[in-house]
Design goal:
single chain; alpha+beta; 4-stranded parallel β-sheet; 8 helices; 15 strands; elongated
Length: 307
């Protein structure tokens, strides 16, 4: 009897341009040919999607799954990662790019071609990567952020994303620039305290977020550290020059940037902003907890299939 490994394929039909469903049969064909029995779960934006995924992995009557593959954007990936971590099972995860920005997928080199991505996952090359944990609860694989601009993904219309892709984030960001106000933060690392006026900050586990690939070019997934990138308050007229440097990934020594590296960050407002939406952090494109937040690096917490 041929011993098939069990693979759970989770896909979000609303991610990106919604075209992944056209590639679904190709995915199943590749995985079956490579020795997997494939089960499919169609997720959504429902609030209980994460708990339903967790139930599939470790709940009563759950399958004895050998691998999970997720086709979606950063938010969908984050939900699956959190479900795996809450399950307590050491189940490896594979990623297929099917979102808008696909920041994390690009970072680990996932091919844009779906069949090629499936072939790479089926090769079963695994590595352990770090995760971030916020306030002892939610995990993130890519980024935790707060401040101006960082909640853009929550307000970009799905039709706009389908039409313009990650350019939709840039369009929405440009709309917000005239309303920028500096925010007063206290940033506490494992050995230092900083008080800064920032527009926004990113705590990065990988190199990019929000469609920007080189926010911290030297970031790694397996070094036990985060890269903190804070954008200090500065005249908006100076933004175009800084924006060009950001695109090139050559800006971390700029006077307008606060760059730190540590395995722990506590970030709090010294003066709460007037906009209640700015009080909340963003975790991998999903709405996170209200500041203050404590972010810890969990080394080697997750196994992923490398490309």
């Amino acid at each position: 009897m041929y011993d098939l490994k069990k693979l759970l394929l989770i896909y979000n039909p609303a991610s990106g341009n919604g075209n992944f469903r056209e590639d679904l049969d190709d995915c199943v064909e590749v995985f079956q040919r490579c020795g997997y029995m494939v089960s499919i779960f169609r997720t959504s934006l429902e609030r209980d999607a994460g708990s339903r995924i967790e139930a599939l992995i470790s709940g009563e009557g759950a399958m004895n799954i050998d691998a999970v593959v997720v086709a979606g954007g950063d938010g969908t990936i984050s939900r699956v990662v959190n479900a795996i971590m809450r399950s307590g099972r050491d189940v490896p995860i594979g990623i297929i790019s099917a979102g808008t920005a696909n920041d994390f997928a690009r970072f680990i080199g996932v091919p844009s071609d779906v069949r090629a991505a499936c072939e790479a996952i089926a090769a079963r090359n695994l590595v352990r990567v770090d995760l971030g944990q916020v306030n002892g609860g939610s995990y993130f694989i890519n980024v935790c952020a707060a401040g101006m601009l960082t909640n853009i993904s929550h307000y970009v219309d799905q039709d706009l994303k389908n039409t313009f892709g990650k350019l939709a984030y840039y369009i929405k960001g440009i709309e917000q620039i005239p309303s920028f106000v500096p925010l007063r933060f206290r940033i506490i690392t494992s050995h230092e305290v900083f008080e800064e006026e920032l527009y926004f900050f990113f705590i990065l586990n990988s190199t990019g977020a929000g469609g920007f690939d080189r926010l911290s070019p030297a970031a790694r997934l397996d070094d036990g550290l985060f890269d903190f990138v804070g954008f200090r308050a500065f005249p908006i007229l100076e933004l175009p020059a800084l924006f060009i440097k950001v695109l090139a990934g050559d800006y971390l020594d700029d006077k307008h940037i606060l760059f730190l590296r540590d395995n722990f960050f506590r970030v709090e407002y010294m003066q709460p902003p007037g906009d209640v939406l700015l009080m909340k952090a963003d975790i991998d494109g999903e709405v996170g907890p209200q500041l203050p937040i404590e972010v810890r690096n969990i080394p080697g917490a997750l196994r992923i299939f490398t490309m």
